[in-house]
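Researcher: We're teaching a course module on how sequence relates to structure. For the next exercise, students receive a sequence and then see the predicted structure as tokens, so they can try to spot secondary structure elements on their own. Here is the exercise chain.
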Amino acid sequence: MIKIIMFDLDGTLVDSSIDITNALNFATGPYGIDRMTVKETVSMVGEGLTRLIEKFLGEERAAIVPEVLERFVGYYSGHLTDFTAPYPGVPETLQRLGNYRKAVISNKRECLSRKLLEELDLVKYFDIVLGSDSVEEKKPSPKPLLKVLEFFSLQPAEGVIVGDSNFDIEAGRAAGMRTIAVTYGFRDISSLKGADFMIGHFTELAELLTGLN
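Model: And here is the predicted structure for the students to work with:
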């Protein structure tokens, strides 16, 4: 029986693509680097902020990663929800799932994840919020998921993870949990084939979980 649902954040609960792109372009502005489009940005999102900037700058600009990261965090923390909003049906569905424990496991830093959820009035739906710096390893490692299970004294069979990327699916499978991929997020559907289930709209989640139980 499913007792806890773990959610990815960006690309699953919220569409944060414009604000992340704006922060990335602000951070790299002084260095004469071409501006990123939203499509280009979301293709690299998922492994955390540091890795995003490392991939964007490349090895030839590795020396400026720390200062670009500092500029990114400084700007982004003040512009988390300029354009970011929950995907359709997210607040209503989270409300319907009130009988389940719920956690957010993001590869975004915990303070930024929590602040974003607070600004969108979503944090009230979750029992715990973990970010990339909450555990010694981040997704696709299963460690953040196992930490949540341990916190609630639950077994892997009692949990499910919902996400939009292969990192979520790989983490869930490694933790021994069932996995649900959302096809509307940042990743192409081809990267989600390892998921146990797929949904095209967040509102489908409640019915799917009812069937699993």
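Model: If you want an answer key for the exercise: The longest helix spans residues 17-28. Residues 17-76 form one domain.
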